Task: inverse folding
């Protein structure tokens, strides 16, 4: 099916509800950068799309890093002197510092305290903490709860295993007419945290499902990976593939009600950067664009100088800037079907631009062609302005000199890309314009 | 005569009155893109300057277009049941849709209505409508007048002819020392409409008359053409000539009291663009600069990608943005001698820059030369700042490294071009500076 | 000693007091562009640093200029009819127009007036006037004093000599590891004027003294010269040397309490321009940056098109923009130890940037290296942001692709240079980064 039809036939209410349901299904699972929770999550996604599951053994060298031991956890609790569980992993998997080594012993509160993490500023919320690369253990809890713990001895149990195993990640590849790829990457290693980043996983899965039905120019790659170590692993094992990535987005924090934020790729003015900004501008809502910085999500790896891929990140409220970030308050109430559906629509707009952003050649470059005799221009003259589509055609004709892509024309014209694209189609149908071909015979993209 | 003298000896009151008189003479004539009204208008201009008249036969192919049939009209009216003329071409030539085919018959108001055009928002004004490329007929009238027409039968007469003939245009060429040309183009096809564009015709004619007395560096070409089809025709028949056009302006809407608007050429930063902006900035009045867009006047054709000439458009209130535009209210009261004279002065400033915008070479580039011993710098030292001319000389010396034209120096210095030019002359006289020559031995322009 | 230690061990109170004392010592001397006052001033500076004294004979041709006669003055006064000195050089050397020819005669007030200079707007201040290149004589005095002079005859005496001699200037050269030079140039020709420019002389001398103790990458050249003719002379006699100047600052007006002003070099975005702006930005105080203009101090000569050196000027309130400029009010009260010390600190910050602004290469450019295993990254994860030094390391790694100097990285990161430099050092120590070498084996600067 033509992409435009896939987009037009999308039921936003439906899609929003479906993504929110995916999030609800994934929410209880205790994920980490390795382990069965991650595997179980990929299985859950496979109900939507046939994600391919990859396993990379512990100890494998990936650039400067080594695949760590695999972490799994069955249970964890702290019991007070009366044998009552005062902290219970079964109630929230955030209670355990992710990657905690096993422990089982008694200790006085004073000693236990050194292993307890709270948020004094948000005394009712449980923080999310990890210790992937240093062996330790700990519990996270609400500050108010800690304040109410009486002195005395406590029994501590973390029933976890840190053993040789594997790092797991999921990949889904959709072949288009071109080998050139568009990458959507999301981290899938966070436990019960909805916006960061179950929302990203759900949106990427839904996007993949929708595009499966479409007739596509580019090939599309979806990665569901543990943060940092996951993208490093994928890049180390797929250096050749990575060279095909022409455009990419890191998908995260797309379920909250905040306005969109786009973080540019390291290149700063890559086609993906301009496509996202154009799509957001023509949505008619407020949004914010930020320059690349080497802190954040997996764009840190994709944009490391040895790769320097054109990968940005399109989020709503960015990581670290909403109070619920990395706390138990980033829960199922914090993400909404409406916000998810709006984010999906924005991602689809970007794809609509990338798929259609050809460079065309005006076949009648000397003066304007006579549009009227082809039925493309109104017959009666003298009015103060032209119609929008007529104006779009004039722009396309004027700038289709081989130097400007449709997106660049849209930007210069201040018109929406879809209007410019529609004008180009009408002019192609009238034999006034032709698509410039790239070396591989496909639609001419912005970068070769 | 040196251009500066021509400019200095200009009597603005006189010039303004002369241009307004030209407009008044042309106002009653019913012009169209072809026909005797256009020819008669050129004859009227020939009282000022020896415009050369060109005729291009109907059916001639000009790029994608074909010269249409010639249109002429003798009379037109609508009579009511009592035989009274309720619409009368003799009272305003705007009453007839321009290029209406002949018609003579009776019809009820209901049928006639489909051929009547009004402006409901401006109920007292007659709109201007055309139908050059689709054969139809119609009348334009005040909306209030239409409201008062009683039902019943009306007799309709348009005594026009649409026959093989010719498209007429006027051209006036002034040879300067260089073959490089400056183009002034104005559309001359509008009937009783003063600002758009009898004002442009009058200003171009007055400018041509003044420059005829001047000793000129560039050659100057003035075109009086029907809109769109006229510039297309000229370009199609003069492709070789067009290559000589280095700078150009489309002259229109120069008679109203509004502030200046400059629409950049498609190139955006051509010398003409910078010259006009500089000239306007140093007039000390508010003005506005707009980027090129492919809608507007004949710059659409000059700036089509196959030509991409450095042609902008210097107007007062731009087309389509004043309510009187293309209505009977764009009349002799809407344009004033003062506004016309001010526009002429602005055009002359631009010409003054183009004519003198050479690139010079500092013959003493290592440290400043000693201006004082040449009488170019005051003897007593210690003051807080230099005089304006001294400062201008320092700027010219510092930037005359072969990379900067005088206009670029003026822009960087924030000084008026005429002061920078005066400084350059003084330094040339003192043998501290020399003009860089272009390949053809003439004054070095900004673009070669 | 490492430069950072020199800077860290600086006692600002001490340095400020020392510079103010230098100014106080120099204040009474009557300097001019030649003569014994200039020589005596250099002797005074030699108490701080071993300035080399150069003498260039009268009549020597230096580019377009000729070394003038040497001017010396013993005494000067105007006596009234009662033989009382009403104007007395002994009370202020500003009273005599600098370079006045000798005169000894009686004349009525009306005739004398033509030789008297005052400031009607500042009636209590004595102006500073010069006449280097036209032989004349004159006195400067407070306007109020002139108003009170009764008519009658006056006896005038200027006991000066204008004879063949020499132009004197001082130079101090500090050799660093590279032949590439940083220039600090100050004019030293003004008589009793503190901010313009005894402050510049004192700061340059103090800076030279401090750098003498430091282990330096660049070589440093300090010039104490008469304004205009001095830099012209130095450049004419040292054209080869001048080619080694990579960065430079004209030092003047650094003792008043105003905010910093930086005047860019003619190049506009040279490394010195970016270094100064960065240093000022990260001081946390308001400052102003101005583009180059060919009026001002000796940057006029260093930035003449035949040299076009990367020389800017870092001042507090610029010349000509404070009312005390070139008047007797630019005295010892107008400059303060605190302002001088603050200026010195700003100059040292700039030097700290230039000395350390290498280009480095990320030795692990594919994905981030694992900083944690090297103790460079905190073990516990999940926090909303990284520490400042961690962030600085990520920036250095991301942008050390051979295209960016540390200063460019600091600018892009919005972090202080010293933090970026500290991060680079840590990464070099961890073998994750290496300095790129320039052709001459030294630290890679920004321009080659």
Result:
């Amino acid at each position: 099916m033509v992409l435009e039809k896939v987009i037009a036939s999308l039921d936003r209410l439906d899609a929003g509800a479906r993504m929110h349901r995916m999030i609800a299904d994934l929410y209880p699972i205790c994920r980490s950068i390795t382990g069965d929770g991650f595997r179980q999550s990929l299985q859950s996604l496979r109900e939507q799309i046939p994600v391919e599951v990859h396993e990379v053994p512990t100890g494998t060298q990936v650039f400067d890093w080594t695949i760590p031991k695999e972490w799994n956890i069955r249970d964890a609790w702290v019991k007070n002197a009366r044998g009552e569980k005062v902290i219970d992993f079964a109630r929230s998997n955030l209670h355990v510092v992710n990657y905690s080594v096993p422990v089982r012993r008694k200790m006085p509160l004073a000693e236990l305290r050194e292993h307890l993490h709270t948020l004094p500023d948000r005394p009712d919320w449980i923080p999310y903490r990890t210790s992937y690369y240093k062996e330790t253990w700990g519990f996270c809890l609400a500050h108010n709860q800690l304040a109410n713990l009486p002195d005395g001895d406590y029994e501590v149990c973390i029933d976890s295993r840190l053993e040789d195993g594997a790092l797991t990640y999921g990949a889904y590849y959709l072949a288009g007419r071109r080998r050139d790829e568009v990458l959507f990457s999301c981290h899938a290693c966070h436990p019960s945290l909805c916006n960061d980043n179950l929302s990203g996983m759900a949106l990427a899965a839904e996007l993949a499902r929708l595009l499966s039905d479409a007739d596509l120019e580019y090939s599309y790659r979806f990665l569901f990976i543990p943060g940092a170590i996951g993208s490093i692993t994928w890049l180390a094992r797929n250096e050749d593939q990575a060279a095909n990535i022409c455009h990419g987005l890191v998908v995260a924090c797309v379920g909250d009600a905040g306005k969109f934020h786009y973080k540019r790729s390291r290149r700063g003015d890559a086609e993906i950067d301009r496509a996202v900004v154009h799509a957001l501008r023509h949505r008619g809502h407020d949004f914010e664009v930020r320059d690349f910085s080497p802190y954040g999500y997996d764009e840190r790896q994709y944009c490391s100088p040895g790769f320097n891929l054109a990968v940005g990140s399109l989020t709503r409220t960015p990581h670290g800037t909403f109070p619920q970030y990395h706390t138990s308050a980033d829960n199922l109430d914090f993400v909404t079907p409406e916000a998810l559906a709006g984010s999906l629509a924005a991602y689809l707009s970007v794809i609509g631009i990338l798929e259609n952003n050809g460079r065309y050649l005006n076949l009648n470059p000397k003066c304007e062609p006579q549009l009227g005799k082809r039925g493309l221009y109104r017959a009666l003259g003298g009015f103060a302005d032209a119609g929008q589509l007529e104006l779009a055609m004039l722009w396309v004709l004027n700038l289709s000199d081989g130097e400007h892509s449709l997106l660049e024309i849209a930007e210069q014209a201040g018109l929406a890309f879809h209007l410019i694209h529609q004008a180009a189609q009408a002019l192609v149908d009238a034999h006034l314009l032709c698509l410039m071909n790239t070396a591989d015979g496909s639609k001419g993209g912005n970068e070769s």
